[in-house]
Amino acid sequence: MFQTQLNRFGKKYKYFYEKISHLKTGEKVVDNINDLLNNQLNILVYNYIDMLSHAITEIEMIRELANDEPAYRSLTLSWFKHSPLFALIKELQNHKFKIIITTDHGTVRVKNPVKVVGDKNTSTNLRYKNGRNLNYNPKEVFEIRDPQKAHLPKTNISTSYIFAINDDFLAYPNNYNYYVSYYKDTFQH
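Above: the chain's sequence. Below: its structure in token form.
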């Protein structure tokens, strides 16, 4: 996608892209720092925080380690202090190098379920839904009835989007109590 954007704007940059989901991949990037210094742009996507938020939902031991927000933040900070990312940042201090750190999304500890009814093609995400014929209480969600006005895809004529607000999450009435107990107090995005 980045290359497509460069092409679209007629730009030619020497760049490197790596999605880092494992410790060894991150260590390899640090070991090859001289290769990074030869590029005009380096894009590194660290997937740890995303993986942690999913693990808290799915793995009981991780859920107990990060049983509240301070524990979750502490676990994240501990990872960062011992991560190849931090080692890379410290090493780059010795070079004239601009670093930009950003995120594609955050996480919210969800606590309150909001009932939503949709057909089988409705998206499964807990913080937003898109589809047709969504039924919900409009006072409990942020809704977008005309996706094109918000620059969102419109897959059919009746596509709409709803987004959970605050620390809410969206749940279907089928197996409602099971899903509420499974997802309540987990970190979602």
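The mean pLDDT is 90.
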